[in-house]
Design goal:
The complex is a heterodimer of chains A (about 300) and B (about 500).
Chain A: H1 4-35, H2 42-58, H3 63-89, H4 94-115, E1 134-137, E2 140-143, H5 144-166, H6 168-178, H7 180-185, H8 190-215, H9 220-225, H10 227-236, H11 242-258, H12 272-296
Antiparallel strand pairs in A: 1-2
Helix pairs in contact in A: 1-5, 1-6, 1-8, 1-10, 1-11, 2-3, 2-4, 2-8, 3-8, 5-6, 6-8, 10-11, 10-12
Chain B: H1 5-14, H2 19-28, H3 33-40, H4 44-65, E1 71-75, E2 85-87, E3 96-98, E4 115-124, E5 127-128, H5 130-145, E6 154-161, H6 165-178, E7 183-187, H7 192-203, E8 207-209, H8 215-218, E9 222-224, H9 228-242, E10 248-253, H10 258-271, E11 276-281, H11 288-299, E12 304-308, H12 311-323, E13 332-335, H13 342-348, E14 356-360, H14 371-383, H15 393-410, H16 418-426, E15 453-460, E16 463-472, H17 478-487
Parallel strand pairs in B: 4-6, 4-7, 7-8, 8-9, 10-11, 10-12, 12-13, 13-14
Antiparallel strand pairs in B: 1-6, 2-3, 4-5, 14-15, 15-16
Helix pairs in contact in B: 2-4, 3-4, 5-14, 5-15, 6-7, 9-10, 11-12, 12-13
The chains are: A mainly alpha (about 300), B alpha/beta (about 500).
Amino acid sequence: MPAWQDFEPFIVSGLALGGVYALSGVGLVVLYRATGVLYLAFGAVGAMGALIAWSMSHAGLPGWAGWVVCVAFGGLVTLGYGMVFGPLLAQRDPLVKAVATLGLTLILFGAMDLLWTTGGGQSRAITLPTDSGGFTVGQVQVNWTQVIALGAGVALTVGTAAFLRFTKLGTAMRAMANDRVITATLGVPVRRVEAAAWLGCGILAGVAGLLLADLVALDATTLTFLVISSLAAALIARLRSIAVTFAAAIAVGLIHDLLTPITALTNYRDMTPFVLAIVALLVMSPRRIMTRSREEA
Amino acid sequence: MKIFTLAQRRQRAAGTAWGVGMARAAGTARGVGMARAALAAGTARAAGTVTLGVAAAVVAAVLAGCSSSSSSTPNSGTPGAAPSSAAAGSGGGGSTVSTSQCGSKPGTPATGTPIALGSIVTDQPGTSFTDIANMANAYFACVNANGGVNGHPIKYYIATEQTNPAQIAADARQLVQSDHVVGIIGNTSIIECSIDSSYWAHLGYYVIDSGIAPECYSTANSAAVNMGPRYSSDGAVQYALSQHVSKVVFDQSNVPGTGYIAAGPAALAAAAHVPIVQLTETVPIADANSVAIKEVDDAGPNGAVVLNFTPPEALVILQAAQKLGLEDRVKLWGCSTPCNTDFLAQSLGPKWNSKLFVNAELTPPDSTNTAAMNLYKAILAQYGKAVQGGIGSFSQMGFTEAEIAVHALESVKGAYTTSSVNAAFKSVTDFNTGMLCQLWTYGSYPMHIPNNMDYTVTPQNGKMTTAQGCTQISSVDPQIAAYRKAAGTAALAPAP
């Protein structure tokens, strides 16, 4: 077993990764609750936005322009998908809605494979200005991008909770999650509320794509699949609680990275999100059965 | 901090969990094992969540399978192209080389019976070796436009695969039985040699390839122009050991064949009495920061970290190290051949100047101004539009394989049959490719590692530059020793 100080740098990297997973997970949960759609294209949208940002930077445009376009791309594509397919699929099962977003994932994935080929050994990277600055905690170097990643996760969780609780739009989203038909009958502009949810989720996809491209890798496959860790966090929270989603995302990032220095487990660390999600689902189910049994009795 | 307390109250009143939609989802999920378990537990909500969880889990499988297709495309280049010349590129000193010299009749398109050659290359998300076959095709197009081989144009079939054994076996049979290829050149695949080596041996094909799998080097019917991951890793570790590092951390992709690759560096480190730590990473790497930290921690301040990854994965690790300020926490960083690309040097920036040392299996193109190198650049410029990576190791390999094949084909007297073509391939001896340290020989040996002498390059402000000239890979690696025992040591190649 490694010494404690061997784990210290992994706590920093795990928290940063967990912060971005939280960012993504909260976006997924809010969209799911407002629209009933589990947005599997979250990672692919962020990946494509990040690749567009890279292309712009590569073409000599200022970095900030690329970041803005990346975030805008995420928002627009997601909003566009939501506006076109949301109403068409509104009455379908959640599983159908989720699989439909898989179609968008595949389209984007194919486009990225076509436009940003990996043939010939091309390698790409996004470097944010915050990478070069930072501070040291003990022996561990912490850069500002890592701080921003964790801070964004915390800020978004708190901000979203406050938004849902204290704003009119947030209340409308909560009502729609409860019952779309009744909410519409009460005069809530359902389409507009859904559009806000789609746009917000898309913007988060863009932000997450940019941060993950910097923290992890600018690679279509990697970024597309990273959504699975966020999905695991959302599933642990049963697609309901943003606080639990945040905690689960941090746990996924931390546990994943803390397993790295443990030689016997290091090759299994990528299983972390799946194992945590399965364990959470198994542990939580019996409790609910008991509760329900009592209620029925 | 649950979002929807309002909703929960209404659910109870309605007697359903999250309304009709989720209950429907539970019904839909009956065929799914995990959803069944949830249904048995009697909670529609859980079933809905689990169903979506299963849907999320299958995303990976669906995406992985989405590009599973193979194709065998005839590419006969542009036989009608007029003779011309092209600038050889910056590395060529700006000299202009006529591409007409790649054939025996400059400016005269070949009109004879085509000679069908074929190749199988991996082409999947994250791993594409198509540049190698595409460069070979560019060379053949040049040959076809300038008289062909004894008047015959070359018709080149490129089959792509996605690391599927059944597909690879089918590709080989399609090339032979449907496309009637008489020779195989340009194969570059993660597992093709392992799958097809006995098939080629059975049919009497002597393959000229870019090797990856062990069988590309350890069998009688395959001879590679490159050193492949094992011997290139040997070269990178050998350079690190020559710099008197106290420890080596060797990290590579967790793919089939890692044990075979790791054996070479392990033997070299053991002979030098330097401890070595062997690591493997699942690719694509999703936690580069932790990988970089672990490597540096394991190596220590006087140690070396040697990577054996594709350029994107290596870049991910090196950039993570840079962002965390780890690049100077070890004595040096090393990498096998895939890192030898200006893309990587440009992406890394000057912090890695003379800090990263990359094994180079082929002559560095930027600093070389020879006839062969200039012809390569000229053909690439004129015929290589499909070569996406441009100048680099992959296209150099394709050029080298094609020029060896054409050299061999020119020696054939009579009809171009499977027998005559493969006999010619096998007979290639001491051929100066202009791209390798040594003269290249196929020969009748039970194994083939004809390229076993290499360069070391290092990034200098966005370009890879030579740090060490031609150096033999140590015979401490038992495979290298076995090959040299069988075939001897090839002479250094004079500048062509």
